[in-house]
Amino acid sequence: MEQYTDPRYQPEQYVEITLPDWAKNATVYELNIRQFSAEGSFKAVEPQLARLKKMGVDIIWLMPVQPIGEIHRKGTLGSYYSVKDYLAVNPEFGTVEDFRSLVSAIHKAGMYVIIDWVANHTSWDNSLVTAHPDWYRKSRKNTFQSTRWRDYDDIIEFDYKDPELRKYMTDALKFWIREYDIDGFRCDIASFIPIDFWENAREELDAIKPVFMLAEAEDRELHRKAFDVTYNWTLWNILHQIALNERSVKILTEAYIAEHVSIFPKEGIRLNFLDNHDKNSWEGDQYSNFGDALKAATVFTVIMDGMPLVYSGQEAGLDRSLEFFEKDPIDWKPHENEALYTTLFSLKHQNRALWNGKYGGEMVRIVNDRMDQVISVVREKDGDKVLAFINLSDDPGRVQFDTSFDTGTYTNLFTGKEQKVPDTMILDMIPWEYVILHHEEKNG
Question: Whole-model pTM above 0.90?
Answer without folding.
Answer: yes
